[in-house]
Amino acid sequence: MTASQQSQGRGHRLAQGASSMPMILNAPKGIQLQTGIEEPEFEQARHVMAGKQLAGASVPPKCAVLFDNLRRAHWSYFGIPSDIKPWFDIRLMHIEAVEPSAVYEVLRARLGLLELYRDFDEAVEQATASGMADQAAEIFASRKLMLDLGKTILEQTDIDKFVKEFDFRMKVAKRIASLVEAIGAIEVLLISFDEDDISLPQDIPALSFIELNDEEWTSLLSQLLEPSLQLKETCLKLSGVVHMIQQLDGMGKSALRPFLAQEIRRRVEDVFGEINQSDDDDNSMADVETDIF
Hints:
This protein has 293 residues and is mainly alpha-helical. The chain has one domain (3-45, 61-86, 94-270). The protein contains 11 helices and no strands. The longest helix has 35 residues, at 95-129.
């Protein structure tokens, strides 16, 4: 199979995982139209009230521990205040905003690398369509992307260092793309947990895109796809959550904010069950203007 054929099949699967948006049965029609969120097929047979999981309704999948930060995140405060920037004093951030912000920063970095890979894949496809051999097309695509990215770097940037960093980023980007392709849902990029707080069982592999050689990465990918881990079906059930998180970022005070925050929470709890939090936190929505700190 040529690189072009591989990229077409890969692009098709990635697009399916990224664009699969679940119909919310009880959501206002205007919100459905604005968010594009629909109820997943597996949910259409039973609808659980937002923010509440029926006792004993499900057992968390084995891979739940890999999504610990997502499970603990309280999305009501995410992106509030809307002018939070890297220079915003972290000491003033509402405690409830810390965990979702951590989830989002990891997600955003991974999505950025996924976009880099897709640009690379598109350039390869264009090169092979013009008659280049597969290997030559990949070299051409890498050089093209380096030139494009090089336009944004400072003049004093060390070129050798820039090239090495680009090669490293492409290596990680390819691994991220291969994971999304294998799982079939972009929600696998929501995997995130605090290694200081979580000790993984021996039969649950930790996701790492960096500290592995190619052989070790192939082995890790196989472990992540083990049916007993239930990672693939878990990510498919979470389908649409990444899109909602991206919409919620920077939304500020909007009629959609409470709906999206609750919907993210409902989707996560429907898959993993509730995590220990107070009922007051479960049932309250943030006053985005006065209850920030």
